[in-house]
Amino acid sequence: LPLLIGGFVAAGVVMLAGGWLAWAQAGAWKRAAEQVSFANQVSHELRTPLTNLMLNADLAIDDAARGGRSVSPRLGVMREEMERLSRIVENVLIFSRGRHRTRQLREVDLVAPLGEVVEGFRFPLARKDMSLSWERPDTCHVATDPEAVGRIVVNLLSNAEKYAGAGSAVRVRLAQVQGRLRLEVADDGPGIPAGQERRVFRPFVRGGSSTREGVSGTGLGLAISRSLAGELGGRLMMVSAARGACFRLEIPLAERRAG
Ligand code: ADP
């Protein structure tokens, strides 16, 4: 009989513990879902005023240029900071929408839209005495979502700007190699230390150098970029380079559906 009672008590304890665990886990999932939805709403609210701010800053810069007046460099710095804020908001929005959305792929020539993204970094990089080279073919047709490719390039270039350090060289290269679109963003900064190459692609993971040197960030850029590459039926990887960091996006030219 004591054995039987002992058995019942043990079974009861196990069931209680299991129930509590399931309840705690359900609670944790609910909390996480609430946080993600909150982040989504906040970033949505931030988007409109931020877009208006950028638009007005651009108009002020254009007005001054048309009137032959010089613009205060402070306005340029403010415009850059707005851009940075907008990148954070967009990344949080993409992250909070969840992974593996179906993307509308369409046949486009990526040279002009990507050129615009790359040129957008010329001034901020030059201010840090960093050079920028943009190598591309005359045309590059692929069935893709140019906005998603642009977002990946923005994230990679903004990392090069943040981590490569003053005076370094940044290179963006677009090419078609063996039926694939290949887009590389490389810099000759300190690069990613051995052993961290996989970790840095995880959400919210930031490399040692970023925290040590006080570079701000959310740890979402590479995770989102890799997930976007997957939605485009391609992949984003780090490739080894003699110096610095080199990231490569590959998308099959013929593939029309995301994998
Ligand atoms: P964040 O920049 O917000 O930290 P990311 O996901 O874009 O988030 O990058 C993750 C980490 O990868 C960074 O914290 C940094 O340590 C490292 N990293 C990314 N790009 C580079 C680069 N070009 N050079 C050196 N380290 C980099």
Automatic annotation (TrEMBL):
<keyword id="KW-0812">Transmembrane</keyword>
<keyword id="KW-1133">Transmembrane helix</keyword>
<keyword id="KW-0418">Kinase</keyword>
<keyword id="KW-0472">Membrane</keyword>
<feature type="domain" description="Histidine kinase">
    <location>
        <begin position="41"/>
        <end position="255"/>
    </location>
</feature>
<keyword id="KW-0597">Phosphoprotein</keyword>
<feature type="transmembrane region" description="Helical">
    <location>
        <begin position="1"/>
        <end position="23"/>
    </location>
</feature>
<protein>
    <recommendedName>
        <fullName>histidine kinase</fullName>
        <ecNumber>2.7.13.3</ecNumber>
    </recommendedName>
</protein>
<keyword id="KW-0808">Transferase</keyword>
<keyword id="KW-0902">Two-component regulatory system</keyword>
